[in-house]
Structures are given as C-alpha cells and as structure tokens.
Amino acid sequence: xxxxxxxxxxxxxxxxxxxxxxxxxxxxxxxxxxxxxxxxxxxxxxxxxxxxxxxxxxxxxxxxxxxxxxxxxxxxxxxxxxxxxxxxxxxxxxxxxxxxxxxxxxxxxxxxxxxxxxxxxxxxxxxxxxxxxxxxxxxxxxxxxxxxxxxxxxxxxxxxxxxxxxxxxxxxxxxxxxxxxxxxxxxxxxxxxxxxxxxxxxxxxxxxxxxxxxxxxxxxxxxxxxxxxxxxxxxxxxxxxxxxxxxxxxxxxxxxxxxxxxxxxxxxxxxxxxxxxxxxxxxxxxxxxxxxxxxxxxxxxxxxxxxxxxxxxxxxxxxxxxxxxxxxxxxxxxxxxxxxxxxxxxxxxxxxxxxxxxxxxxxxxxxxxxxxxxxxxxxxxxxxxxxxxxxxxxxxxxxxxxxxxxx
Length: 407
Description:
Blueprint lengths: L9 H18 L5 E4 L2 H8 L4 E7 L5 E6 L1 H7 L5 E3 L6 H7 L7 E4 L6 H10 L4 E4 L1 H9 L3 H21 L10 H14 L18 E5 L37 E6 L1 E3 L2 E3 L2 E6 L7 H20 L6 H14 L18 E3 L6 E4 L13 E4 L2 E4 L3 E4 L2 E6 L2 E4 L8 E3 L1
Parallel strand pairs: 1-5, 3-4, 5-6, 11-19
Antiparallel strand pairs: 1-2, 2-3, 7-8, 8-11, 9-10, 12-13, 12-14, 14-17, 15-16, 17-18
Helix pairs in contact: 1-6
C-alpha cells in the first residue's frame, strides 16, 4: 500500500559497505565485522533510519535487526536481511540464523551507546570481544560518492540563495536576534530545509545555528566553535536572544547549517547594520583577513594536502599579521581548529587541526571557517563548504564572501 520516499541505490549501499570493510581491515584487522547502533550510521549503511542495530560482517550478508518500524525498513532499504528483535540477548542467534554469525572479535560503534546500554549489550553477547570501530565508520563517511555530492551541491546552492538573496531584504537593524532567527527559518524552509541539523560529538546539540548581533558574537559559549552567542536561554543556548537587538553600527553573524535529504552544508554570513561606508577600518581589516585565509585554504585544499599543516600555516599567519588575539574566537571562545568535515553531521572527520595528519582525498567535503572576534564589536569572518576535487577545491555555498550592508 505504501511506497518509499527514496530508496538507497543498491550500488551506493555496496560501495559504503566496501569502504567500511576496507577501513576496518586496516584499523582493526582482528575484527570479523562491525556492529552499528546509532540510527544515523544505520541510515548511512542501509538507507533507513533504523531503530535497532546492524551487523556488517567482513564477509557475507549484513543483518539489520529492528525493534520497531520493520515495514518501513523493508520499504526503504535494499538490504536483503531485515529481521525483528526484542533484546540484545537475541542478537547472536539472529545473526547465526541469517547465515552471518558474529565473529569472536567484532568492532563496535562505541560512541553510539551510553555506558549503561554498552554494559548491557556486552553482558548479553558474552562470547564476543569488542574493539573500537568508530574511526572506520567516520573515514568511510568522509569520502562522498557522486550520489552524495549531488545532494550536498543542491543543499549548498539553496543555502547560499537563502543567505545572500532572500535574507538581506528581510533583515533590518532594530530586529532582535530571535526575530532574525525566525527570518532565517522562514527563508530556509521556503527552500526545502529539512529542519534537522545533526551533530556527532556525544552530547553536542544544535538548533538552527548561531544568530549573534554585536557583542553576542563574543559572548561566552559552550558550543565547540568560535562564534559566541547568547541564545534563547541557558537551557537552549542556540538561535538568538529575544532581548538582544541588532543595532546600527554592529555586525550580525548568522552561522546556520542548511539540511537537505539528510546532508548538511555550513555557511556563515556577516551582515552590517548600516551603509558599507560606516564599517570601521578595524572591522573591515579583520573580515578581509578571514576572506584571505579562506581563499588560501581553498586553493591548497586538494588531494594529498595535510589538514594539520593547513591549520598551522593559518594560525601562524594570524599571529604574524597581528590577529592572534581574535583569530578563531576571543578568550575562552577560541578554538584550535580552522574547520571540519561535514556531511550527515556538521562535525564530521577530519578536522583542520593539530594531529590530523592523514591527507585529504577527492570527494571529501570540508567546512572552512576563519573567524575573528573583535573586542567591543562582535565577530566577523566567513564560513563556507568546499568539495575536494582532483584539481583542488570548489565552494558549494556561493562565491561572494564580503559583509552584506543592511540599512
């Protein structure tokens, strides 16, 4: 009676399984397969947002075990084996019955389960030793297929249109941050935003993104990013504060992800309250430096480049140029990175940061976000999403990066 809204192509699913297996063979050669728990990782490997767990053996057919929604899973996924289950104690038997028994050593998506559930799972699956499998999954997801890239390019195109074409005519000084946030939502939803922007780091959340007027851009933040914000409330430190009004002579930083069919692009657009001629030289200089950093990074973001080396170059550049204090945040808001991978989640692997020494590959997609906290003013700078191609990188969220003056 029902038809799936979209079915993951069987070839695309097979490519993802092969990528996970290849990384697992290198990172955890003793493991005979990978157990996946998070619904998003299950979606990546099956095409359905499954409520349960997936066993991906190194050889043989994967087994998706579903607590609820088995009819939907069978509609959406090309996977052959989708079975119901009630308890972790059923897992070994179900895999054996399906012809893909659990291996004596198995990798697990360890970050996906809280301590209590992980303890329960390992107590019910007693004859298996588990090793970490999260990195194999992260590295497989980092390199996007043409199928994924088509979705992300469309997402980026709409993201740019919302930020640079729709919003400038709807914003004005005198609006509160909350009013600005509602205008962002309206523009995003008009263009098909799915409403859900996901984070990968345990406990990290996001709602719309950050809308920061004036000194809100330097307000203390617990979010792992350089842009400060007051947010809705201490319990919901996202979006924008109803009590903070964007005034003339202030920057307005809108750092909000756009989501389409599960995939996310990241972009920050800075608006200036008043005519362009009223922007102080110090603010212009700070924003210009951030654009220069983004341009240099985009030029050098190519297969074989090393994330940590790009970060160190830009960090040292900011220091030499006299921008060390505000680069990537002021005070406690300062972060030790320049950007991050992006796809099904905002904060994906890899990161432009110390310790990330594996080279970029064609098909990776990165958010590059050089920003500058200006004391007493707020935050300026840029963020855009770049696709790594064979010859360099291409911005998929537009090509105009200056501040937009709104009178």
